[in-house]
Amino acid sequence: MKAKRRITAAAAAFVAAVNFNGCAYGPPPESIYDNINSDNGISVSDDSGIETMTGEDAIDSSDDFDPENNINEEVYGPPEDFGLESGE
Amino acid sequence: MKPAGALPAETKRRHMSELADYREKLYRKPFLRSLFLELTTRCNERCLHCGSSCGDIVREELSPEQYREFLAKIKSDFGTANPRICLTGGEPLMRRDFFEIAQMIHELGFRWGMTSNATLIDKAAAEKLERFGMRTISVSVDGLRESHDSFRRTPGGWDAAMRGIQNLIDRRAFQDVQITTVVHKGNIDELEQMYQLLLGVDIDSWRVINIDPIGRAKLHPELLLDAGDYRRMFDFIAEKRREGMPVLYGCEHYLGAGFEREVRDWYFLCNAGRYTAGIRSNGDIGACLDIEPRPGLIEGNILRDDFTRIWQEGFKPYRRDLADSDEKCRDCAEKRFCAGGAFHSFDFDKMEQQVCFKSVLF
Questions:
Q1: Does B246 contact A5 at a Cβ distance shorter than 8 Å?
Q2: Better-scored residue on pLDDT, B55 or B203
Q3: Quick one: closest CA in A to B137, which residue?
Q4: Which of A77, B19, B190, B322 has the fewest C-beta atoms under 10 angstroms from its C-beta?
Q5: In B243-327, which ranges are continuous DSSP H helix?
């Protein structure tokens, strides 16, 4: 089982800049990280742009809440993916 | 009860209050995020908990062409950014034309995922799932080998499922390969052993949910958990998450301020008919497919009705709080947050919620 993953702050800033919809705990869209490297002025924790959390870090202590983004998993359905939404 | 490092209860209550306001808006303007397609009720397993009583109930099946026509209309009316398509069953891969349907969904441009017991996912099937754009999959593993095979009444099922999961992992192509475990009296003692086992399996997440009194599980009340079991299960999930592992609970049930946002990343909001619709294998339109398809809860049929109009103007039972119908909820201080709980576990004969964690978790 993979350790819980979180987009780093730097990667999140990049995500915001290009209007990607990343998520703290969800698998990050790979295409985001295709564009992140050490030459573009954005530092990330490793090649994948994700950091592994352990212990207390795993609990999201954020006070921010967006009811419209209260992403839910279904009872028996497949997990939500947080990839790029395919455009129309 | 509150895990260390958790959000303060007052913060959660503020969040849940905001969500309650949003829920009211959602009743007026629902947002179709997930569209479930029950491709078949046929299954090669006979699980004691099956919410759809698959194998006992066999419904007609829509043809790929009927799905094509329906989904082309969905694309025209809703676009492809949302909803994502969730293929389920039965076991979806029991359909010989499964990959024809999968390819069509992919070519229409939808995001899609599926649930499966993975027993039919050999290397060739995993390659096709990748080729036809599957993003996520949840595979049922309901205990260690012996209890899994017994619970699912399928000798050799555990080994076949684990081989299927490995075939998926080996593709290194999917956003989320998840295992879902339904916890019941017969496997709750195996959670820690399962956890140790799954540490060695390269899955992305492990969803741990309790058995609910729906479908075939209604015939097996001896499998249902008691109050102590529930607390044990939620403490287990919270503990593993504190260790940084991607263990989570599902969408079902309000857990109180202690466990909300601790065992999953979101607050309870039953998605049925608000974010989620489901199409039965015969074309009947409903909300969450775990809700019993009884008269009054079937909104129409895609072969004769306009789904989009029904989504916008129908689904009336889901665009209100269940708490308004349940006498037991009337004076409950939590009803603003729980809204009467999950639709799939609501008893529409007695008009009361069957699964309520008041006095159990909060």
A1: yes
A2: B203
A3: A78
A4: B190
A5: 256-259, 307-313
